[in-house]
Amino acid sequence: MSYHANEKGYYGEFGGAFIPEMLYPNCEELRQNYLKIMAEPSFTEEFHQLLKDYVGRPTPLYFAERLSEKYQTKIYLKREDLCHTGAHKVNNTIGQILMAKKLGKNRIIAETGAGQHGVATATVCALMGIECVVYMGEIDIARQAPNVARMKMLGAEVRAAKSGSRTLKDATNEAIRDWINNPVDTHYIIGSVVGPHPYPDMVARFQSVISEEIKWQLKEKEGRENPDYVVACVGGGSNAAGAYFHYLDEPKVGIIAVEAAGKGIDTGESAATSALGKVGIIHGSKTLLMQTQDGQITEPYSISAGLDYPGVGPMHAHLFRSGRGEFISITDDEAMTAGLEVSQLEGIIPAIETSHAFAIFDYKKFEKEDVVVINLSGRGDKDLQTYIDYFKL
Amino acid sequence: MNRIQEKLNEDKKLLSIYFTAGYPEINDTVSIIESLEEAGVDMIEVGLPFSDPLADGPTIQESSTAALHNGMHTELLFEQLRDIRKTVNIPLIVMGYFNPMLQYGVEAFCKKCHEIGIDGIIMPDLPLDVFQEEYEAIYKKYGLINVFLITPQTSEERIREIDEVSDGFIYMVSSASTTGAKSGFGDEQKAYFDRIASLNLKNPQIVGFGISNSNTFQAATEKAKGAIIGSAFIKYLTQNGTENIQSFVENILD
């Protein structure tokens, strides 16, 4: 049994392409070409060159000595926070901009919540000199002003999504509508392992460089490629998909997915999809999603904008349903406390998304000899104001 | 024979109207349907509102949000339509997005439609292959016609595949757009209408998107069997309420 996507884009019962016919030609063009293009030597060469020289890969696998001491286990941090633009998101946008060029597209659209994926998309568009439009919820634009400014400085146009709840879900709807209206010249760079096939698989493959590196880096440090556990936070789930990718079919490697409980699972203000979601269709994918009894998609809540999504990528829905992955949900307060602890024990201020992954030690006990790799998906610069307000710094 | 198939056999160009159930007011559903039939409309798409209507432009989005806010939901729509066949004879089609149908239960949904006297279903985000593998038999069992969409970008091969699976009409999206985005037809649309007409499909085509008045209705139905108006009607309801639906329809058929 494999935990990867099959050729129709299904992970178990999850995935597929539940899209209106208007999107069929776009997705079909991508589906027919993505694996072929990703296998072309000219593509892989340019992709890896840019990851090395522009993004700054490989990112270090760092042994966190003081954290390990505190929790009495061997903790390694995969330093995606050191990527250009401050998070793993750029691995995917580099891959997709090259894909767009191969497909002959001359216009890029993207959605963004906190602005990280928007910035990563605007960055690669500037790099390649391609027109870029980023959709962002009107509410997110107001609360993420620095990232809006970064996108503008990089030459992107930021368009406000004013429909629905005016956050990430609606920004995604608007980007999809743009793609319906511009089916020929435009490529849509989705920022996570969500959306219709082939996006979840394609994005996971671009992010798989994370676990590809962990394997040889761990071999150097521990004499073995496989850790006992790999831990990542999950919103849509792209950093997690990349960190798990080469371990999905290695049953001895424990997979731990950390979701945002928000103010608590039962408070009505949460984004813990595995706990609160039911099978449904969101943004063209069959997956677990938070919805009313009537199938209307509901608005999630998390202090971290990057985990504030009512669904989860189909890969993760399958990891949850099959029991292959262990899902833990962490509240705002637990995440913030863990973020402060990592800052003071290791001198690394994590993004609040990532802070959730550091808060699992109250819920999950590890053996002293266990090797636990935590994907440090992003840095906390963008979250400084939230940290300041929370801790009254 | 299903009411849709009977209607398609009539020797005339068909006018079909879409409206969002629960808009402008929660209990307008039945009276809007009755007024439309009285005004001479041939077929009606009753929109089941959804929180995230991907294929729709602002007009239908806003009507959907308002309808949900008014309290519309699947079971309530079925209750409102329970006695609709006592007064209305024209074909009725439920149009919406697949997730609410999935949550209701596809078989339960189809069974309810059959009991009420709904003739067909349009779920733009239920893909052809999934329909065939999982749901076609259920639709058939309850005598429901599934309507598929095609667009100017749909390949001939896929159009023929859709034609094969369809047993009513093909919903021909006039241009690459969301609903209500563009109005009027240029040379590109005319070429597309001609191209589809020349394929000699077994199912007649009804054109939707971009039709808002008598001129666009005429242009759309020059080759096709009929046309669907959605956003323009919703806008009319927003501005004029449900009182004078007759005059909206008269202006189209004029």
Automatic annotation (TrEMBL), chain A:
Gene Ontology molecular function: any one: tryptophan synthase activity
EC id: 4.2.1.20
N6-(pyridoxal phosphate)lysine PTM sites in chain numbering: 89
One family name in Pfam for this protein: PALP
One Gene Ontology cellular component annotation held by this UniProt entry: cytoplasm
Catalyzed chemical reaction(s): (1S,2R)-1-C-(indol-3-yl)glycerol 3-phosphate + L-serine = D-glyceraldehyde 3-phosphate + L-tryptophan + H2O
Cofactor(s) in the UniProt record: pyridoxal 5'-phosphate
Pathway stated in the Swiss-Prot or TrEMBL entry: Amino-acid biosynthesis; L-tryptophan biosynthesis; L-tryptophan from chorismate: step 5/5
The entry's keywords: Amino-acid biosynthesis, Aromatic amino acid biosynthesis, Lyase, Pyridoxal phosphate, Tryptophan biosynthesis
EC class of the enzyme, as a word: lyase
Domain Tryptophan synthase beta chain-like PALP: 56-378
UniProt cross-references to HAMAP family, sorted A to Z: Trp_synth_beta (MF_00133)
Family: Belongs to the TrpB family.
Complex formation: Tetramer of two alpha and two beta chains.
Biological role stated in the UniProt entry: The beta subunit is responsible for the synthesis of L-tryptophan from indole and L-serine.
UniProt-recorded name of the protein: Tryptophan synthase beta chain
Organism the protein comes from: Flagellimonas meridianipacifica
Lineage: Bacteria, Pseudomonadati, Bacteroidota, Flavobacteriia, Flavobacteriales
Protein encoded by which gene: trpB
Automatic annotation (TrEMBL), chain B:
Enzyme class: lyase
Catalytic activity: (1S,2R)-1-C-(indol-3-yl)glycerol 3-phosphate + L-serine = D-glyceraldehyde 3-phosphate + L-tryptophan + H2O
Residue numbers annotated as active site: 45, 56
EC number: 4.2.1.20
Keywords for this protein: Amino-acid biosynthesis, Aromatic amino acid biosynthesis, Lyase, Tryptophan biosynthesis
Any GO molecular function: tryptophan synthase activity
Highest rank taxon of the organism: Bacteria
Leader sequence residues: none
One GO cellular component term: cytosol
Pathway assigned in UniProt: Amino-acid biosynthesis; L-tryptophan biosynthesis; L-tryptophan from chorismate: step 5/5
InterPro entries registered for this protein in UniProt: Aldolase_TIM, RibuloseP-bd_barrel, Trp_synthase_alpha_AS, Trp_synthase_suA
Annotated NCBIfam families: trpA
Free-text function comment from the UniProt entry: The alpha subunit is responsible for the aldol cleavage of indoleglycerol phosphate to indole and glyceraldehyde 3-phosphate.
Binding partners and assembly: Tetramer of two alpha and two beta chains.
Similarity comment: Belongs to the TrpA family.
The protein's name in its UniProt record: Tryptophan synthase alpha chain
